[in-house]
Amino acid sequence: MTRLIDTVAWVLVENGRILGARSRGRELFYIPGGKREPGESDVQTLAREVREELAVTLDPESAVHVGTYTAQADGHPEGTLVRMACYTARHEGEPRASGEIEEIAWLAFADRHRTAPVDHAVFDDLAGAGRLR
């Protein structure tokens, strides 16, 4: 039986690199974001998760959907999929590790192998568009 984990993620690309976050006790980086709470929209979830994980404030009016990706969920039994709706959005503040996040890093395409499986397609799309180096 397939199980689906529904998430949203904030795609922040600067100077040919994408911002990645690594949770405490985890090995792989992921594109910052997370699961929605009951009644939340994608943008509400995105703003809350980014505030909790990176201590920055997103401008909800500037959020733009850039794609939705599905893959095997890292660290979950086979058949558990994660669906990740990705958005860009303007922000205030400097991203820093906060809450459950142990480390943040600016990742190039060559770092793709250091990320969760669902992130691979995002890296591929960004590299194909010339946005990742």
TrEMBL record:
InterPro entries: NUDIX_hydrolase-like_dom_sf, NUDIX_hydrolase_dom. GO terms for molecular function: hydrolase activity. Keywords: Hydrolase. It comes from the Bacteria. CDD domains: NUDIX_Hydrolase. SUPFAM superfamilies: Nudix (SSF55811). Residues 2-130 form the Nudix hydrolase domain. Its cofactor is Mg(2+). Pfam families: NUDIX. This is DNA mismatch repair protein MutT. It comes from Streptomyces marincola.
